[in-house]
Write a sequence for this structure.
């Protein structure tokens, strides 16, 4: 059970924390004379109140305040990370209300004004780096997500990772039940799904009012998914992931059998009433929108959609590349990679080598490259991914210093069944800060035919080792950085690094067969096509069908996979462009360092320079590499 009343918000919590901190000096009364204790109490109270409410006296205090304000208002993040093992927010869900959006926008504006007041003050290089990072983060969010003009341009309810399904996933995966209070909190949290769904309804209606029309296919996908979950709640509530997870985590060490049965009955009642009815309310609103939806369109159709798309590209790539530049970059790499594929197929004397798509599709259906379509094979796939990760991890000491090698292993799990239909082929979820929940590579096993053996290595390297698991785990461990620097996400850096590690693995010979190397090229081709398709949809006004046709013709993907990917680009505009753009920047910086340093270049040191500063805008990363080159080039 949470120690914080349900109605409390950040202001009340801040006051409580202030009272707690201000009371600490009273202890001095028992240790030193009364008058000195009073003086210290007044000075201490003044400092704490200034930190909490007014212009902070130092940048580090500003960073800490911004981070903790951000964190304390997002209980789902707190539950995932569990800093210091705290569980004070275990009854809470994230706030999706319109008023919370306005509150956050005001908070970001206030903190940005405070940040700018330090602009002309003397800073160390480390302080300047943090100043630039948080400044970029706040400014880009103010220009896009929290601006009055574009606050509601995103499709909050969507088929990929919309809160209507992520709330369920979050509770199932991250709500730990170690004691009776945790079980009680779980039930309260599930009951609060009803309030969260009402907030989502308000969000959708506000978008409707602002003429932010959700593409028709997005609405249909979400409705189908919600309806399936709703039917399970009505007909088989005991099979709901929310119920299964709860029962699996209850045991006799937590409470008696009698108490367990009572808790299960309470949860069952809530699922069949509050949660079921919330699904019905949301479905009714979405069906209204679907009846009025006419097209499957890109951002260009929204008010000032072109301007918004440019901001999305800037936000995700952290560059000033124009949509046309990104479109042409994608076309260039598509042609280059296809030619390399044909060259390999010709060398291996593959029939019809010039038709790379047909040749590789034939390879995909080779009996040696596919799994049997059964549950045993699904377990085998998870085991094979784990083995690939272990194998490459054992060799990483050759390319990474100890400082850049995580101390925790990456686990591999199947994407939950209720999310499979609308989830990508794989994704990585970070470890909790307390280390009790490991970093996890989630694999989509909805259709075993989509899992091709020669493609598995590259995916494992990208999502796990030395990709996301390395970068994110190392960032979380950087105690010398302000805490927000360990957590802040920049898509181009994160995904650019993961794509860079795909190329690193290929360069260093981790593909033991030519089909596995083809699998690497296939992944590179896929990311290059993304540049073309994303900008095609949102800038060049391609239809959904045009985008699907281009990707089918220019990759080796099956149409079912392509449809899922293309539909992702509609709801996460610009995000898919960050992969290849980020990778190309990191590669260009590596080339720059090699050229400048010659024999002094050390790959481990380059990786240190990239990884030991946390996630960064690419312009800040470039400054860091320039400084690394300058320092390394100096004579000893």
């Amino acid at each position: 059970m949470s120690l914080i009343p349900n109605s409390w918000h950040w202001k009340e919590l801040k006051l409580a924390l202030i009272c707690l901190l201000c009371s600490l000096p009273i202890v001095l009364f028992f240790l030193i004379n009364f008058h000195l204790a009073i003086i210290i109490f007044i000075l201490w109270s003044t400092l704490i109140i200034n930190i909490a409410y007014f212009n902070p006296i130092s940048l580090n205090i500003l960073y800490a305040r911004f981070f903790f304000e951000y964190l304390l208002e997002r209980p789902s993040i707190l539950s995932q990370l569990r800093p210091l093992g705290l569980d004070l927010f275990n009854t809470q869900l994230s706030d999706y209300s319109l008023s919370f959006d306005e509150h956050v926008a005001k908070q970001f504006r206030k903190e940005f004004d405070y940040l700018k007041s330090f602009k002309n003050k003397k800073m160390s290089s480390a302080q300047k780096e943090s100043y630039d990072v948080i400044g970029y983060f706040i400014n880009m969010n103010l220009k896009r997500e929290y601006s009055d003009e574009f606050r509601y341009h995103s499709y909050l309810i969507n088929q990929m990772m919309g809160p209507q399904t992520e709330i369920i996933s979050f509770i199932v995966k991250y709500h730990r039940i170690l004691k009776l209070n945790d079980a009680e909190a779980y039930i309260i949290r599930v009951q609060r799904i009803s309030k969260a769904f009402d907030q989502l309804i308000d969000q959708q209606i506000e978008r409707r009012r602002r003429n932010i029309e959700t593409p028709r296919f997005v609405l249909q996908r979400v409705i189908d998914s919600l309806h399936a979950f709703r039917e399970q709640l009505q007909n088989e509530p005991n099979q709901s992931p929310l119920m299964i997870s709860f029962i699996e985590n209850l045991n006799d060490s937590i409470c008696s059998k009698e108490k367990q049965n009572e808790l299960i009955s309470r949860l069952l009642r809530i699922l069949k009433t509050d949660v079921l009815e919330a699904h019905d309310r949301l479905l009714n609103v979405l069906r209204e929108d679907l009846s009025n939806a006419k097209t499957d369109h890109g951002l260009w159709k929204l008010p000032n959609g072109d301007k918004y798309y440019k901001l999305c590209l800037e936000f995700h790539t952290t560059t000033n590349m124009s949509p046309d530049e990104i479109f042409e970059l994608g076309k260039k790499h598509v042609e280059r990679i296809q030619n390399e594929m044909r060259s390999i197929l010709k060398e291996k004397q593959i029939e019809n080598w010039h038709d790379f798509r047909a040749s590789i599709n034939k390879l995909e259906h080779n009996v040696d490259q596919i799994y049997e379509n059964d549950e045993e094979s699904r377990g085998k796939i998870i085991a094979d991914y784990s083995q690939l990760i272990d194998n490459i991890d054992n060799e990483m000491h050759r390319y990474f210093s100890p400082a850049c090698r995580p101390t925790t292993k990456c686990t591999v799990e199947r994407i939950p069944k209720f999310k499979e239909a609308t989830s990508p082929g794989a994704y990585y979820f970070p470890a909790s800060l307390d280390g009790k929940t490991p970093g996890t590579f989630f694999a989509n096993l909805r259709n075993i035919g989509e899992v091709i053996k020669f493609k598995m290595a590259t995916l494992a390297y990208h999502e796990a080792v030395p990709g996301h698991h390395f970068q994110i785990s190392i960032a979380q461990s950087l105690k010398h950085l302000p805490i927000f620097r360990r957590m802040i996400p920049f898509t181009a850096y994160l995904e650019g690094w993961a794509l860079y590690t795909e190329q690193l693995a290929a360069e260093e010979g981790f593909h033991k067969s030519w089909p596995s190397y083809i699998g690497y090229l296939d992944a590179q081709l896929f990311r290059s096509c993304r540049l073309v398709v994303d900008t095609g949809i949102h800038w060049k006004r391609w239809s959904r069908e045009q985008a699907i046709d281009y990707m089918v013709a220019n990759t080796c993907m099956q149409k079912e996979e392509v449809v899922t990917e293309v539909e992702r680009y509609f709801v996460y505009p610009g995000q898919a462009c960050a992969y290849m753009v980020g990778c190309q920047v990191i590669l260009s910086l590596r080339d720059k360092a090699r050229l400048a340093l010659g024999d002094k270049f050390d790959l481990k040191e380059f990786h240190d320079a990239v990884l030991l500063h946390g996630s960064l805008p690419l312009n800040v990363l470039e400054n860091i590499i320039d400084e690394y080159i300058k320092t390394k080039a100096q004579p000893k």
Observations:
- Strands lie at 411-414, 426-429, 440-443.
- Residues 310-581 form one domain.
- The radius of gyration is 26 Å.
- The chain has a mean pLDDT of 90.
